[in-house]
Fold this protein.
Amino acid sequence: MTTQTVTTGAERATATPWWRTAAIYQIYLRSFADANGDGIGDIAGIRSRLPYLRDLGVDALWLNPWFVSPMADAGYDIADYRDIDPLFGTLAEAEELITEAHAHGLRVIVDLVPNHCSDRHPWFQQALAAGPGSPERDRFWFLPGRGEHGQLPPNDWQSYFGGPAWTRVTEADGTPGPWYLHMFAPEQPDLHWEHPKVRAEFEDILHFWLKRGADGFRIDVAHGLVKKPGLPDVGPAPDITDLPYQDCDGVHDIYRDWRKIVDSYPGDRILVGEVWLPSPEQYARYLRPDELHSAFNFDFLCSPWDARVLRRVIDATFAAHTPVGAPPTWVLSNHDTIRHVTRYGREDTSFDMADKRLGDLSDTDLGRRRARAAALLSLALPGGVYVYQGDELGLPEVQDLPDHLRQDPTFVRSGGADPGRDGCRIPLPWSPGSPSLRFSPDDSATGPWLPQPADWAGLTVETQLADVSSVLSLYRAALALRRAHLTRLPETLRWLTPADDGAGVLDFGRGETFRCVANLGQEPVALPDHAGVLLASGPLTPDMAGGTLLPADTCVWLTAT
């Protein structure tokens, strides 16, 4: 085991705790790099690419679940929280990865799934075997059904993956039994967080990974652990700010206890929440000083490419975070959403988890130009930032996967109505000239678990490293400037143009010397007076009067006069 701590570039540059300004890179493990040739990414693959991640300029790695799992939901159905699934490697390899990442100046954040486990978890298997009314079943939500013979689910809750959130068990003697709750797939039974053994178990899991050097945890479905007493029906016209299966008051007690645990370890360990809630007030409660350190800013991710909307979201983000003293976070894509290159190339550039609109046409060139500008915009904002693997390559969503290759349970549970999330999880392209674009070793007998488009040969890491105008080169330059300069600036910004100037421009300053101007409009705009250009997402153009124009869908970092 290791308790080694690490000082990141962000921390070296400023006395501010590292997580307040960190650039965190999300690794979807099965699609990052495959070292053993089975077509699935693994820990050894990550270890082989640590120099790439160091040179990219990020401060930490968030790893999607690597635990023992039947993989009903790509690892978010966990059967053993203290061991690594053989598909990815071993516990010893995980410990070595953490140590090696630290040696490269990279922290490691483990993805924890506390709302539910796998139906293969020993606890759930014990609950099924123990029978009705047993203490083993009290750790889950087993309830009798409604109707004369218990043939109807206990309430009207629907699974996030489609269909009822309840499955009825068949007892050992063949008789129909009670129903169990699963807010996601039937293979993911929800844990009963009012049970003291559940709370004690997860506190021990935190200690297990913290002792091995983990620098923090990303908490899946952080808002959903506690349910309303009695599990009432949602009803036909629910109040979306008061749903019975999320954001219940008791969840905050859990995170207060967890905060004490992570604060007891050296090195500024952190808790990051996946918190999907409809109001900023609800969201901010999770970020109080004795709860989570930060949470994902999904409002920013879901926003259209529209200056007025983005400015409102940025202002609302600061309004929610400032009272609780938490840093904002900025994210453009993740493993559950449409890649923003594709989203920004559509006529409707917003994102809605309930309607991904995978059939919408997208102009990839336009989307990539906007994605470059969005990268500079998000990296310029105060707070932390997340980069989903492949964002730095400008990868688009793969929208034409054949149905027989899709593996996301949302596709199956919805009867194909929801194509699922596989299109943003395609294995990364590293180098041209091999069938897997060097995602797997050249001599691999098995192709990648999801096929890569043929035109991704032009988007590989190797190709883009050789091109100073590539998306990857832009990210490397921006992350280096951000670490060297922007992380030293105050965690505030000031707008330098009116909110409704009509030009589609976001223009703000930080400190005395930095200015970011993003043109989201359709026409070029004149650059303001400045002392120099630090970085631009695309070429700037001269105007007839000898000045400089900022083209549409372009962002620039300036040294202010």
